[in-house]
Design brief:
mainly alpha; elongated; 54% helix; 2 strands; 148 residues; 8 helices
């Protein structure tokens, strides 16, 4: 007749902070486990390795990584600005430019006055991208190149 270890399993699940179905008993130590009737006993058995919890089953992301995202014109539904709004595009562009400006200022590659002037130009929409802003800075010799 098999031993009834439901009580021990429930206590172990509580102590291991997992579900009852994940609790496993070492087959050689079943008598010891059956004798355990207090939480302290169960804790000791967990420490000894007679009671343990099974690892959670995960869901593999391999198939998702393998499937390349199709973004060509044939798979696009909706107009240009319904896919990503003008405001969203503006926010991305301006935030990127301001981030680059901050980096330049913090690394002392531009002065504070240049920073303020270019910051206002970014706000006005003077630059199409970070690259365009950098090009402007270099053409107007506003950027200090570090000594190599």
């Amino acid at each position: 007749m098999p031993l009834k270890l439901d009580f021990q399993k429930r206590l172990a699940a509580d102590l291991l902070k997992c579900g009852v179905n994940r609790v496993r008993f070492n087959e050689e130590r079943l008598e010891d486990i059956a004798d355990a009737i207090t939480r302290a006993d169960i804790r000791r058995l967990i420490k000894d390795g007679a009671i343990y919890k099974e690892q959670k089953k995960g869901v593999s992301r391999a198939r998702v990584r393998a499937r390349k995202k199709k973004r060509g014109p044939g798979s696009r539904k909706g107009a240009k600005y319904s896919r990503i709004s003008r405001k969203e595009l503006w926010m991305r562009k301006v935030r990127a430019q301001r981030k680059k400006l901050r980096q330049l200022r913090d690394r002392k590659l531009i002065t504070k006055t240049v920073y303020r002037r270019i910051y206002r130009m970014v706000k006005a929409g003077a630059f199409k991208s970070v690259a365009a802003m950098m090009e402007y800075l270099e053409q107007n010799k506003l950027i200090r190149r570090p000594l190599m």
